[in-house]
Structure prediction request, 451 residues.
Amino acid sequence: MRPPWSGRPTASLFGRLLTLIGITLVASQAIILTMVFVLPPPAPDFYRLSEVAQTFEGRAPTLTERRPLELKIVDKAPAPAMEGLMVPNMRAELARELGVAPERVVFAAPSRVKVSDRRVFRIIRDRMAREGGEREDHFLIAPFDVGVQRPDGRWNLVRPAPRIGLDAWQQRLVWWLLLSALALAPVAYIFARRLAEPFQLFADAAERLGRDPRGARLPVSLKGTAEINVAVSAFNEMQDRLRRYVEDRTAMVGAIAHDLRTPLTRLRFRIENVPEEVRAKMAGDLDQMEEMISAALTFVRDASGPAERTPLELSSLLESICDEMAETGADTQAALGDKVVIEGDPVALRRLFTNLLENAVKFGGRARARVYRDGASAYVEIEDDGPGIPPEDAERVFEPFYRREPSRSRQTGGIGLGLAVVRSVARGHGGDAVMINRSGGGLTARVQLPL
Prediction:
């Protein structure tokens, strides 16, 4: 299967990241320039002096696109005082309309916002001329506070009502930003996907390598970045070296086991001339060595052969093995559990479960198996009623040719490769096998297999 990034000349990862950053910067600058030249400048809320006077007199002016003015009574004069050449004229005009002395009128700018764009004043004056009859030159731009002292010494205060939500300019700005983000999202997604896909394929290849060094190699693409292609080549070389290493060691063990049969055959002929009482013991030792060699050759053959993975249902596999063993008199039973389907080697998994069930019957009297699913893994547990094992031997029992019972007789056990095969098959499928002592007595063999 061709990787999704194959098909055209490579580019460096640095170059792709630089391209992505450059596109982002150019797009953001283009959006900003478009907003500057296309959108009109924000016009702040403005109020004529006549509207302020109407508010002091209790007559609410008609305001269409601006915040309403509110009238309050406060104890102190508003501050800080507004400065400017037109402030004295506005104070005198407002005092005249209200019929008070100019000294009792105060214009304050609590948080003055500077307006640097002259187009704003032109927009305000054009709107004033459009909204109301006479053209009026005096107006106030929010925020502001206008205070008139009352006879009792307190102050009537007029100010624009607090703003709630976004004004029209801010809404247009937010819409522009949202639309530009939506426009750039597909570009960012494509770049991110193309940069991330090779790393996901690396993770999948590493997982396959952990299960089987003979797995498919990563194809060297022409579309991935230069750094990715170098890493792919290095990964494939590492996989080839690991495969050769495993094959060489496996072939060496197989050759040694095979060549040992020749001196064993010679020994069988030579013991014919020894006394009868010694010959029986020597023949038993030779039979045991022959059995160990045969088991080693079988183990090597199974480990070196190609594994064929097919979908199989674990509960059905366990039930069939338990039924076959029960027909020979073994006390085995598979509990009804989840229907769990995995991709596995049927022959190898059958041997794995058979070894565990035979051990449970041999050392624990009976075997009870169950299958369940937990997260992304399937678990098979086989319980017995035996004495269990010491905690320090929980890992050693999986070592090849290790037996807790020191004799090698066929009545007390095999030669110590059964659990080694169990763990080898489980890890070959990307899982593992462990032995757990139960608190109430007995042993549980737990096999974890990825779904």
Summary: The domain at 310-450 is CATH 3.30.565.10 (Heat Shock Protein 90). The two ends are 22 Å apart (CA to CA). Confidence is low (pLDDT under 50) at residues 1-9. The first helix runs from residue 13 to 38.
